[in-house]
Amino acid sequence: MSTHTSWPLRSGADYIASLRGRDLDVYLLGERVDEPVDHPIIRPSINAVAETYDLAAREPELATAISSLTGERVNRFLHIAHSAQDLVEQNHMQRKLGQLTGTCFQRCVGMDALNALYSVTYEIDQAHATPYHARLREFIALVQSRNCVIGGAMTDPKGDRSKAPHQQTDPDLFLRVVARTDEGVVIRGAKAHQTGCINSHYLIVMPTMRLGPEDRDYAIIGALPVEAPGITYIYGRQSCDTRSLEPSALDRGNPQYAGQEALVIFDDVFIPWERVFMHGEVEFASMLVERFTCYHRRSYVCKTGVGDVLIGAAATVAEYNGVAKASHIRDKLVEMTHLNETIYGTGIASSHQAKPTLSGAYLNDDMLANVCKHHVTKLPYELGRLAQDLAGGLVATLPSAADLESDAVGALLEKFLKTRDDVDVRDRWKILRLIENMTLGRNAVGYLTESMHGAGSPQAQRIQIARGMQLELKQQLAKRLAQIEEP
Asked: Is pLDDT at 446 greater than 90 in this prediction?
């Protein structure tokens, strides 16, 4: 952590200040970034996380909760859900933040990791008399008191997908323990597609899949500071990201906010025992993955907040074009709303149907969580298609802001891109760029592709749905009404 940080963090400005001076090894566009906070490509993603702090200050009933550990009011992203209503309120907060930022605000993985670990460590302790749950509670109380951002690191590079971790030619393709001392463990490997990792204060590393007895070195869960020695971050490219390096904000679409992903490489990184929450208990790896994905798949209601912004942008461009009252335009907006609320309905229903685990923490309904996420792998793409339909071809052929502002052709663009007399060409330009940003550009990363693959690609949800579809029960129901006698 920055040595200049004053805990607890109370505002977005406090949060941004806490990221300074950490001397992280961050690489972007082939160069080491001296200060990520000030890099124009990285800063919009930091702004999105900062909004989670400012929302908590403005609307504490929405974005904070009373901690079951300390009795103090804490940021909801750090709160352990002890009721179905707690999970519902998470969803309310997530949709609101999607509306406010129009992008990924990068804290849901950490929130869902803490909640999953709370119950899993409790059950490991029950089986093995380990100290993991007490350690986790102490860690959660610490980060709650400081108001930290937690990044969850689950996805390994995986190498040859047909082989288990211990069978890989290169053992580093799954993160593993390579040494143990009296003080702690040393880990080596990488985590891919890590949302908000550079913008976090702590990372929690976790197994990515079911493990067997020979994979014990890979059954490691631990928390470590983002600036721990031996960690390298290689920043992921995003479509149109270098527009943030251009002098005009007019072509950025969403100048203030963006998401963040990076490849995180761990080169013999130390984790002290007091921050280790699983160490070799391979039989609990699948429980962790299933509970984390259960939480995280219904967390994708955040995309409905982003969808609200896209619907608003589509309605605005239709209005600017003078066609807002056309019946087919209204019908497409109705369809966009229907699709968006379908995602939200399944996600929040999953939270409403939560049940307590042995630890006392509540876990949402697994079937509906997977239905929610499966919708998210499809419906945002249709929302994006409809938005592009309403925007017209100019969303993909608009010249650059430099042309609009040039003496040579600026006046021509002002003339030929004019629609209604009361609509400024620059306002139409901005809304077109926002639609481009969300469906083709930087924030399409989080709204489309990450919606496809985050928390498991579509087949992962279909597997879970198949496991829970209760075909035998449904056959019995049908046979009873059809008066079919069982042999």
From this structure: yes
Convert the pLDDT of each residue in 262-301 to its tens digit.
999 999 999 999 999 999 999 999 999 999 999 999 999 9
DSSP string, 88-137: HHHHHHHHHHHHHHSS--S-HHHHHHHHHHHHHHHHHHHHH--SHHHHHH
Q: List active site positions.
A: 104, 108, 195, 261, 296, 300, 302, 450
CA-wise closest residue to 75 among 86, 62, 65: 65
Q: Interhelix angle for 132-146 vs 108-128, to 10°?
A: 150
Q: What is the DSSP code string of 132-171?
A: HHHHHHHHHHHHHHHT--EEEE-----SSTTS-GGG-SSG
> pTM of the predicted model, to two decimals?
0.96
Q: Which of 419, 230, 185 is nearest to 317 (CA)?
A: 419
Residue 6 to residues 139, 224, 328: CA-CA distances in angstroms?
18, 19, 55
Judge residue 137's burial from the number of C-beta atoms within 10 Å of its C-beta, 0-12 exposed, 13-18 middle, 19 or more buried. Answer: middle
Local structure of 288: helix, strand or coil:
helix
Rounded CA-CA distance 299/456 in Å is: 13
Q: Mean pLDDT over residues 102-114, rounded?
A: 98
**Which domains, from first to last, does the chain contain?**
12-283 (2.40.110.10), 287-477 (1.20.140.10)
Residue 487 confidence (pLDDT): 83
Q: What is the pLDDT of residue 436?
A: 98
The per-residue pLDDT for 2 is 63
Strand 276-279 to 220-225 pairing: antiparallel
195 known ligand binder:
yes
184: left (phi over 0), alpha (psi -120 to 50) or beta: left
CA 124: distance to chain centroid? 27
Q: Tell me: the pLDDT tens digits for 334-349?
A: 999 999 999 999 999 9
Based on its alpha-carbon atoms, the radius of gyration of the chain, rounded to whole angstroms, reads 24
Mean pLDDT of 401-430: 98
pLDDT, position 224: 98
Token pair of 371, please?
């239905």
